[in-house]
Amino acid sequence: MFSKACEYGIRASIFIAKNSYEGRRVSPKEISKEIDSPQAFTAKILQDLVRHGIINSVKGAYGGFEIDKKDIATIKLSQIVIAIDGNTVFNGCGLGLQTCNENHPCPVHDQFKIIRTELKEMLESTNLEELALNIKSGASFLKV
């Protein structure tokens, strides 16, 4: 459903949020290791997240990536998805067809429309705070 870049972007954002709660900035190397992503690919994803105002980049000896603690609860998963993949997941065809709509539906249009709506609701109602705190408490995990 999401591109690999988007999956990594979500995981990186959660990891950065968790560390930001602990007052830590994290390096691209730490992030790529934690989310099991190639370092160069991770750097590109992090640039996109910085450009969209989701994470902050601090240069220098004590630099790294962070999210302002006050912002963690306001960042929705939908913002990360849109920053990396655009809004295709919210209105694209389930089969990837260019022309698929109510007047010209693909074979799975009606079923996929329901899934798309539920996915959009979940992404718009889930914030980084709840995910980061679940990781921090051990209730969920980012890697095996």
What would you note in describing this structure?
- This protein is mainly alpha-helical.
- It has helices at residues 4-21, 28-35, 39-51, 69-72, 77-85, 88-91, 109-125, 128-137; strands at 56-58, 64-66.
- The chain has a two-stranded antiparallel ribbon with strand order 1-2.
- The mean pLDDT is 94.
- This is RrF2 family transcriptional regulator.
- It holds the Pfam family Rrf2.
- InterPro entries: TR_Rrf2-type_CS (IPR030489), Tscrpt_reg_Rrf2 (IPR000944), WH-like_DNA-bd_sf (IPR036388), WH_DNA-bd_sf (IPR036390).
Which CATH architecture?
Orthogonal Bundle
What gyration radius follows from the Cα positions, in whole Å?
17 Å
- Strand content range: under 5%
- How does the major sheet shape up? 2 strands, antiparallel
Highest CATH level, the class: Mainly Alpha
Helix content: 55-70%
- The N- to C-terminal Cα distance equals 21 Å
The name of the CATH topology is Arc Repressor Mutant, subunit A
Pfam families: Rrf2 (PF02082)
Protein name: RrF2 family transcriptional regulator
InterPro entries: TR_Rrf2-type_CS (IPR030489), Tscrpt_reg_Rrf2 (IPR000944), WH-like_DNA-bd_sf (IPR036388), WH_DNA-bd_sf (IPR036390)
